[in-house]
Design brief:
The protein is mainly beta. The protein has no helices and 14 strands. Strands 3-4-5-6 form a 4-stranded antiparallel sheet, with no helix packed on it. It has a 4-stranded antiparallel sheet with strand order 7-8-9-10, with no helix packed on it. A hairpin with a 4-residue loop joins strand 8 and strand 9.
Length: 171
C-alpha cells in the first residue's frame, strides 16, 4: 500500500489528495456525501473541508479536537448521515453525532456499550450499523433511529462470518 489518497467521481479522472499530516500515516478513511474523514496512526482525526459536488478534492484538512479522547486511540472510521462510528485499538466502538467538523455539530464522542464484544470494525449507512469482531463474527446494531442514533444493542447474526463489513443504503 502506497498510502496515497485518491479522489474521483464517475465523470472525473482520479486526482491525488495530499495527506492530512506529515507526521503520521493515514490508517483509515471514511466518506459520505461531501465529507471525508481520515485517522492517522496516532489516532488524530482529520476532516476534509470544502468538498462539494463539483470539487471532490476540497480545500484543506481540519484536525478534529480530540481532547476528550485522551488515552483512546481510534483506528477505524465509518461515516453516515447520522454521524460517525469509530473503533479504538481495544475494539471498543464509539459514536459521534454529525459528520461535519464545523461549530454547528456536537463535538462529543460517546462510548457505545458492546457487552464485552471487541470489534475490528463497524460500518454505518443510515439506520444500518454492522460490526465484525476479531473472530470474524458479524453483528447488527438494533434500535438505530434519528431519535436514538447510537441504537440499543448488538445482535449476533448467526451463521455469518467475514473479515470486513460495509453497510450501504442501496446495493
Amino acid at each position: 500500500m502506497s498510502g496515497e489518497i485518491v479522489c474521483f467521481t464517475r465523470s472525473s479522472p482520479p486526482r491525488p489528495l495530499e495527506p492530512p499530516c506529515s507526521q503520521g500515516r493515514v490508517v483509515d478513511i471514511a466518506a459520505t456525501t461531501n465529507v471525508l474523514w481520515a485517522v492517522d496512526q496516532s489516532g488524530q482525526i482529520h476532516v476534509r473541508e470544502g468538498l462539494a459536488r463539483d470539487d471532490v478534492t476540497g480545500t484543506h484538512w481540519q484536525a478534529l479536537n480530540m481532547t476528550q479522547m485522551s488515552g483512546v486511540l481510534l483506528c477505524k472510521l465509518s461515516c453516515s448521515d447520522r454521524g460517525v462510528w469509530a473503533v479504538d485499538t481495544t475494539g471498543t466502538p464509539w459514536f459521534r453525532t454529525g459528520c461535519y467538523a464545523g461549530k454547528d455539530t456536537v463535538q462529543a464522542w460517546v462510548k457505545v456499550e458492546s457487552n464485552n464484544l471487541k470489534f475490528r470494525e463497524v460500518s454505518a449507512a443510515g439506520s444500518l450499523v454492522w460490526g465484525v469482531d476479531g473472530r470474524n463474527c458479524v453483528y447488527v446494531r438494533t434500535g438505530v433511529s434519528y431519535s436514538l442514533p447510537v441504537g440499543a444493542d448488538w445482535e449476533h447474526v448467526p451463521g455469518l462470518q467475514c473479515l470486513h463489513v460495509r453497510a450501504a443504503q442501496e446495493a
